[in-house]
Amino acid sequence: MTLDMTLDMTLENQMTDTAIQKSVYLPAPKTRVWDFLTKADLLGNWFHPAQEDLAEGEDYLLTSQKDGDRMCWGRVEEMSPHDYMKWSFTVGPMEGVMTTVEWRLADAPGGTKLTLEHSGLPNNAEAYGLVLALDKGWHGFLLNLHDMS
Amino acid sequence: MTDLQPVFRALGDPTRRDILRMLGDSPMTIAQVSDNFDMTRAAVKKHLVVLSDGGLIHVEKRGREAVNTLNAAALRPVFDWIGTFDRFWDTRLDALKSAIEKDAANDTGYDTGYDTGKSND
Fold it and tell me: What is the ipTM of this complex?
């Protein structure tokens, strides 16, 4: 049947750029997909609930449904409803290092093509204080990292 | 490993990261961890449970005591950010697709303009 959407995920591992790009076809119009990306409650249906609906220029915080712990956060740097949104983005273990997440929505037959690009991912584990602080309990590959520095 | 959330959650808290660093030096009982952190055993226990849920420590019974050991291998994905977020977004986008399919199926009054004819599946 025509609504048999294919999940077309593509990954680009660019060692120089360290960005991930993925696309998914969704059986809903851009306006509805946009709601799932920006409304506090709908974000909870597939990601984590947000504290508030997302707004341009505002910080956002996605918390664990289980216990309210901070899971992902950053700032909505740009919003062009219902086509484009840019976040700064981090998770707890990154210890404050910010990356960039961009969402692009495009009309596609039977729905919307949503493209995610996650860039600014460091490919050097040395960027993280956690690695250095853990080195006593670290076996093998961490020692190799230190040898290179 | 498909779901990295338990690892992220376990590592998201500075106290838990400190506990991991200590366990990296040597395995410890709850009492030993508590002594080092000026925290109640109950508070330490809570953190250890989250770390264990994330697979970051092994808990081993030795007589009447439980000894906590760092499981360094579980930390590996966290240092491979590309691989980690590759799987992270696969999981999230799958969930988004399911949520939107469910939404489209429930919301029959919503004019999507698409053929929503019955499937014979």
Answer: 0.73
